[in-house]
Amino acid sequence: FGRRLTLLDVVDSTQNELRLLAERGAEEGTLVIAEQQTSGRGRMGRSWVSPAGKGIWMSLLLRPPVPLPLTPQLTLLAAVALSRAISQQLPALEIGIKWPNDLLVDGKKISGILLESAAEDERLNYIIVGMGISANLEAEDYSEELLSKAISLKMASGQTVDRSALIAAVLEQFEQLYKLYLEQGFAPIRTLWEARSVTLGKRTELYTPQGTVVGVPLGLDDMGGLRIELPDGSARTIYSAEVGASG
Ligand code: BTN
Q1: Residue 88 annotated as binding site
Q2: Domain 204-246: which topology?
């Protein structure tokens, strides 16, 4: 991955740039990296703070060789890949994954992942994996509201992060796990994800499109959904939600 690389200075969003390349037939593994995004976007229609030269803002193109179900599986794979790459570069940091794919240090978000796809019926034509890593941001790069829930790798570790080395590590991990996933399915990814999760085993509020659900997340199902135990002892699986307060 990353052998076809477009490095840009300022873009609205690397997702849009890569989509253009994808529509023109770009191959799997094509990567767009920007120093700065003027309209970086996050999940659930939120914006993503992407100041110049301080973070890793990039999008990776996947063209799965087999029809993949529209499930959270690849999103969860991306979270495992990023967390392993960051751990490799900064072994002292303890990185947890909040379902589905936020990476946290001490409960604060250091990275986010956004998958966008061109879906034709059940079959996915291509998938754009957007990855944002707040590498060397300083406190003043965040709004006061964001500072209570987000942190950069530099703020958390006291070290300036070598962005090129981290990008290389992410691509290597991603390629390895994607290969494993295509060969062996979701089971090994699921195990790796569960081992790094900070969401499991604690009473949690989940804001789903159908309303708030409170329960204890137990693990993932085969599709990558989150299995929840409800207060009445019954079980439910959630495929799309914002994970709120837990503990
Ligand atoms: C989230 O946690 O809400 C997902 C954030 C994803 C941000 C990345 S930065 C690179 C790519 N381009 C975007 O506009 N968004 C993603």
Answers
A1: no
A2: SH3 type barrels. (2.30.30)
